[in-house]
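Z., the sequence and structure:
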Amino acid sequence: MGCVNMDKIKPAVGLLKSVGQKVSNAFAGMKGHSVAHVMGVFGVPRSGTTLLTALIDAHSKAACVYEPWHSKRLRLEQTKLDDLMALVRAQGKELNLVCYKETATKLYYLTNIDNLLDDASRVSRVSLVWIVRSPMDAFLSQIAADHRWRKGLFNPNPSNFKYWAGITYATFLQMSELLKKYQSCIVFYDNLTAHPERVLKDVMSMGGLEFESEQLNYHDTINRKAVRGDRFVIDEARPVLEQSKEKYAQQIMELKAQYSDDEYLSYLLELSDEVRRNIHHGVLKPPHPAIKTLIDCARENYIYS
């Protein structure tokens, strides 16, 4: 057999390397790469974190990671920007914003969000979005979702009121400190579902990007396999209907009658009323006085047990 002429095959080798690099960039993680802006999204379960993240993810220059620690794609101790970037799939986008979201199913997820933002701040601009929903509405939504997903294991009873009140109040108090630490805002779930364009313009601006109308059609382009959280948000996207609000109001009246002496239910009701009183403000940014009002309401009834 004759010798291979290396001069003739060098162009082919170069072409293969080039194609391989493009494939790698499109589908592999971006560990070791920096990005202009990193944004964390956090809220209690059923408060709209999946919806907001999907809307951000639909931007042409943004990519999102859904629940990296809850999904166990990251270990709890992995809180560096490089750890997050290793999960990012650019999919051909020229990225300016990387967003990641978690919910308060475990409160140490919020500590992880803080640690990752702190690490990212060395090389990128960072921001934090706290999405807030009336605790009672979120609680009742959790019950409805549980019946749909888990056959009704989560029910309205004193034990579950205590659990929900605990994560709600702890989230409010921990977030009150992080709002001071980072560029941040509060997004109300009701505003996001009723006026998504208006809310997104503020959120995207904080992330250094302009709102794109195509974001409102996120369900047409979203990578469904990447979504963690409420998958029905992707397939059954719809605003909060008036009949849903009326249904929740009726359920709350029934719970008040059934558990009239339960202190945790009274805590949730008081904070829920305070949230509803402030929804009309729209997206809140520190030092808006309504933020202090919400935090003070939570602090007054903070549950130590």
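The longest strand covers residues 125-132. The mean pLDDT is 85.

Let me know what you think.
H.
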